[in-house]
Specification:
The complex is a heterodimer of chains A (325) and B (444). In chain A, helix 4 crosses helix 15, helix 5 packs parallel to helix 9 and helix 12 packs antiparallel against helix 15. Chain A is globular and about 85 Å long. The longest helix of chain A is centred in the first third of the chain and has 33 residues. Chain A is 72% helix and 2% strand. Chain A has 15 helices and 2 strands. A two-stranded antiparallel ribbon of chain A has the order 1-2. In chain B, 50% of the residues are buried. Chain B is α+β, with helices and mostly antiparallel strands. The longest helix of chain B is centred in the first third of the chain and has 28 residues. The chains are: A mainly alpha (325), B alpha+beta (444). The interface between A and B is large, with 51 and 60 residues. Chain A: It comes from Streptomyces tremellae. Chain A: It is a multi-pass membrane protein.
Chain lengths: 325, 444
Amino acid sequence: MSTETSTGAGARGVRDARATAPAARPPRRRGAQRTGLAAGVLLTPFFALFTVAMLIPVGYALWLSLFTQKLSGLGFGGPRDVFDGFGNYADTLADAAFRDGFRVLGGYVLLYIPIMVGGALALALLLDTALARARRLFQLALFLPHAIPGLIAALIWVYLYTPGLSPVVRAMHSGGIGFDFFSSGGALPSVVNIALWEWLGYNVVIFYAALQAVDRSLLEAAAVDGAGNWRTAFSIKLPLIRSSVFLVLLFTVIGSLQLFTEPLLLSNSGSAITSAWTPNMYAYAEAFQLNDYGRAAAASVLIALTAAVLSFAVTRIANRKGASA
Amino acid sequence: MSRSWSRSLRTAVGAATAFVSLAVLTACGGAAQAPAEGTREHPVTVTFWAWTKGSQQVADEFNATHDTVKVKFEEIPSGGLGGYPKIANAVKAGIAPDVLSIEYPSLAQFVSQGSLQDISRYMTPAVKKKFLPQTVQLTTMGGRNWAVPSDASPQIFYYRKDFFTQHHIPLPKTWTEFRTAARQVKRAAPDTRIATFFPDDPTFFQTMAWQAGASWFSTRNGAWRVDTSDPATRRVAAYWQGMIDDKLVSTAPSYSPEWTASLKAGTTVGYLGASWGAGTLAGIVPEEKGKWAAMRMPSWDAAHPSVGMSQGSTFAVSKNSGKTAAAMTFILWMATSPDSVRARVSASTSTALPAAPALVPVARKAIDTGFYGGQDLYALYAKAGATIDPHWLWGPTAAANNTLRDQLHGVIGGGTTLPRAITTTQSATVAALRKSGLKVEDAS
């Protein structure tokens, strides 16, 4: 258990500082007073930032979500802020567009996660076999897309998807494949493809690092017992890096909830993606296109709650599996 | 551990309090009214946000010719690409500039958000007389003036003269003729289309409806009357649905790489645009100089042609401004002085039609129409501008545009049709307006 979490915690820290909180154990109290003071001094910058960048905005969002703006008559007198209780939450939940956003996310996760986790595992196992040559080169090549900011990546893919412009679409057409990336049916695969391109290499690196930590003597013992490469991969390596797999799952699920940049760009470039395609886009449209900040805040809070519940569920399952191992 | 917690918490709370009070102080700072003019030593400086072509040159020209009021210009992204959220947030934060550039379609929304100042005091009858009456009407709401018209933007049809001549395609004066011409274009070159129906920009369709005499929003007895599926709109919807179904027009998004690529390749030989579009087009395909020409937008009634207005911008004073008088000095200079128009038109490639007819000859003299074979664009614009249908008013919500935009995605993807899209838009718009507390009359 302990070696497993330690390989995971490093990667976790890289990706999301908040997630380290539950993993960190309070230091044992030795020479209590002094250590407490030092910890206080060292932690203050973190808590100050945490307050300014997290707690206050979250508090403000909660506050905003309880109010709505009301106009009267023709509306040229300007709006009044009115306390609305949980009205914004009720309206948001009742809005089919918001619920459809979660349906889209569901489809996205169902399509994306199997390909992502399966693909990353397969590539990591390939890299880990004795057969692989030029490991560093492949690792770098796989990781490189992740170094490109999501926005830029989306712009590049928009270009590659645009009919009449993209060499890829042209080649597909001359090969008899008439797939339209911008059609309503093509929207989901188009977005999944961008996400895969961006994140596959990253997850390969996580899996590969976990595989490197597998005790070599175990592999030697397996070889002595006559296990081939396949048998070693499925019966020894995979079970040993299970916690990394759960970690990647957790991040992917939460990351999916935040799906925003890529579909927004596609939506502005002629794709069939609508303005409230994902829940985050719904919140964005409510705030910045429709000026309904209360509704946007309520939607954001609901998204955050969903993320919290999902994270909790996935960690619980992961821990139970880990403990039983 | 717990002690350090409470200490840092207290520090954080202190810092936060400081931040908040600072923000409150800055917000209050703008409230006092500055004098209308400064002195040569201490001029009043007004800030100005816009994205329209030539704005920098206009601000420079103003600064060169004025010493008691100075302008600080900042270019922002265009409204649909983040400019409007930026303005809305700045107003909310109390840091909006004095002068804002806002397009007609979004004006009512900013007014109902309480973001703009009532400038009726400055819009005297003598001032109003300087502008095309339709543009004054579009900036008047609830009997008060909220903005000064900058340009009028009558619809104009741009076409590849060489292509039309080569294939002997008669220029379409009506929409029936346009459909015939579209078929002829497709027959002459199967990959080529006469023009593009822009599916990403709901105002493209709205302007088409406007031209046909639709009136989506109107105020009557202190209530908004909403009718996005009136007979005129239904007629336009059926027409364009037919054009899309028969693949007689392209459906690339407006100003997208896909659209520009087709212009460059010569597979799109027309552009359903507006007065300001001439400059845009010349900037996109400079190599096609001399091949393009402009004409009146085809109309529904050849005997009584009318047009709608595609976008077009106005100048308004933000709620946060404490320098209304100085801001209005700058705005009225921008909208009515020959110097301003000369700076805008000659320093950039803007072909905007000034909303003040007296300035049209100035723009006409300043513009280089070589791209259009030396055609007298402004004579055409002025004639078209006079026929802008006066019945249109933009609504106080973005819900109509947003719903229509999403529906248009479906129209192109095949999930819905234009006639269905306008009924969906009607119900969504009425619901949004009711929810915001406005009085609404559902005309459907």
